[in-house]
Inverse folding.
């Protein structure tokens, strides 16, 4: 599965509705309907879970696809693959010219034990975050970039 920042993968791209995604991928393994993933009370998201990835649809943009999270070893972004060594991933990411990346953020046991020893590398221009745990790439997250007015920049689909 080839991940494309600012777009998605295969026929799945940012801006799809839940029904459109299901018509392409079939029924998901699980659905979390209208969960709140932020501190904003009305910031609701529906998440569809498939084998190795999940798709998030944001209520604030009429439940359009705004975020994708990849965890399966079949997922890759160029030469970057889930499960690879963190240092190797950093080197390849720098070669890919993904834009400036923010200082890595580190979660510790005090914030959430599930994410202890997790480091994240965010490339906001590309709408991309890599999460590494115990020195290995464990997740690739892509999200629809926002313009200066916080409006989604949907991909041009051909």
């Amino acid at each position: 599965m080839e991940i494309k920042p600012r777009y998605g993968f295969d026929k799945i791209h940012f801006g799809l509705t839940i029904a459109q995604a299901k018509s392409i991928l079939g029924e998901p393994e699980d659905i979390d309907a209208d969960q709140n993933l932020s501190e904003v009370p009305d910031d609701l998201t529906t998440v569809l879970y498939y084998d190795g990835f999940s798709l998030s649809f944001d209520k604030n943009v009429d439940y359009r696809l705004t975020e994708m999270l990849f965890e399966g070893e079949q997922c890759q972004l160029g030469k970057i693959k889930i499960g690879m060594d963190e240092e190797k991933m950093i080197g390849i990411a720098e070669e890919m010219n993904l834009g400036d990346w923010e200082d890595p953020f580190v979660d510790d046991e005090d914030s959430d034990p599930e994410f202890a020893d997790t480091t994240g590398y965010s490339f906001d221009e590309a709408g991309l975050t890599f999460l590494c745990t115990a020195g290995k790439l464990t997740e690739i997250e892509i999200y629809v970039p926002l313009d200066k007015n916080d409006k989604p920049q949907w991909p041009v689909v051909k």
